[in-house]
User: Fold these one by one.
Assistant:
Number 1:
Amino acid sequence: MSGGGGGESPAGSREVLYRNPAYINRHNGFSAHYLGAVSMFMMQPSNRKTLESQLVSKIEEEQLDGKLKLKPTTADAVRLRLDRHGFQISRDESDEIILRVPLHTLAQLVMYDDGFNKSNLAIKVIVGKDMFSCHVLQCPSEDSAMSICETLQRVFTVIMAESDNSM
């Protein structure tokens, strides 16, 4: 990425992007593969493991039990859209919506290496008091996974700035 004209630095343009409400009103689309979901589970704070490592362990356990895919097929290709309302995952070919996740139900987004040099994203969603589900995506690259995480961070930053300004 190269710097633009007008004497604006990349850091300056990043600040504008972070605070620009129009940024989060548009759909930010990403390609990935949907590996499946872990439905309805509880997580407890632990002295031995962080919540993040507990989540990854739960995913790996489900994969070993055959309840989640380890490797995606071409049929698992999806489009992830992210905006101020949440996530939407749809089939790449048919645009059929697989899942909608309202932003206020998003509990955690974890990027991790699956042990086969693939970058995965775990989207932990609140489904009830102390109950969660988790949707697992495999990204084409670490950069792609990081871009999704950064976009989500920007969305939250803008929403928080808007709520601070409205008070």
Number 2:
Amino acid sequence: MRKLESNSYKDIKHHYVHITSNVKYEKTKEILDMLNLMNIKTCHSWVKSMFDEDDLCIILKDERGKYKRKRFYDYYPELEQEAKAFSLKHATQKKSTFTVDELAKFIDKRFRELYGEELNLEKSDKDGKLIRSKESCRVDLLMWGARWDSSKNRPYFEGHERDDVVAKREEFVSYFTENKHLYYSKMINENDCFKLQVPKQIREKIRILISHDESTYRIELPPKRWLYPALATLFNKGKGRSIMVSAFLCQHSTSQLFELSDAEMRNAIKKYPELKEQDNFLNYYANSANAWIHPGKDNYFDNQVILNQFERLFKMLKFKRDFKDHEIEILVDNATTHTKMAYDVNLIGMSPGTRCQYETIEWVEDNKKKSIKCFDEDGESKGLLQLAKELGIIDKSITSRNIYLKDLRNLVSKHVAFEKTSNLEKLAKEYEIKIIWSPKYHCELNPIEGFWCYSKCFVRKNNEQNFSELNNLIIKSKENFEESSLNAKL
């Protein structure tokens, strides 16, 4: 063999052919019989016994010669259960931030906690070496039924073809089509460029439609994530910090996103010095009612913040020269931050001492301001029944046994103080401005949605997932939007 090992392939082949050519079949059979090894007859009988007429593949059931190796989790089954539960919990969350790296670190941490003392392991490896590699964890996820797939499940709100929604939509569209001659309308010039055409002078005042909405700019998520197909949940669009912008888009030939000139702003500040002061919640853009915030637990565009922003707009509108002698209409969506009523009978308990969210109720009747206290001298709420008696809605002899809460609420809701008018509508009425509500589930009917689309495309294209540049890009997108004259097309 040593001699053969040193020879070339041709020499080895020559020796092999020489040996096999000199050994006869009978001699080989005789040697195998003497050694009591498997010969030709034995092989034939073994094959006949293995095959069955009913199942020709029975030989595949024999697993002799198969190499078996124990998996990592065969030694640590408790760890597999915890790791699988961890991946299942995090892969089905809305925030969609689960990665293989998180799973690998979790397994490393739990392994050291469970078996660290037994195997003399430290609580954490200083070299950063994991007990189970990321590649192995990726295989584990696939074995457990997860897959790396596109994020598709997004919420969809039903109710678009509900009878009341359809009726509101038809009413909304017909209102603008019947009065389209009063608005600045779209026009195409010779160079196929969109412009807003000034309405013809008529007896009625020309109307300016201002569209309002809020939108959030986020650092976008990657398009794919780990998920379990049978348990795929809804997901949030972004991660980390974000900026929420509330803006006003004007349907006018000279103004797009609402703002005053420096001279107009100085005149506005002379009459309303509070316009110069900084708001505790909102960050206003220069000479404008458009604002932005970092949304959080105690920082959001709630009803009071929205009212402050709209009141700022109403004060500034008086000093916009281009809007002089125009009728102002503001298009607002049906968000709860806009539709909140001043007083809601459902937030007042029926009996004394029950819940009540209002200290006093104020209203205007016969051009006089009136009010009523909701709490007595002992600091307990009077209850809806007692308030109804003091307002003269029901007779003083009626008790809680004579009337149901549902019927009492219906009676009280007809009073002037509890009329179904939102805080925003009441505020706009003071400044002689009309609020128009867009139909539910039809955000596409609000022109400002086109601005959000353009702005976010611009930001996404120019931002490299850098939050510090996000606000600057939002401002640049506004400037590009105005230069492109897309407002006329919208």
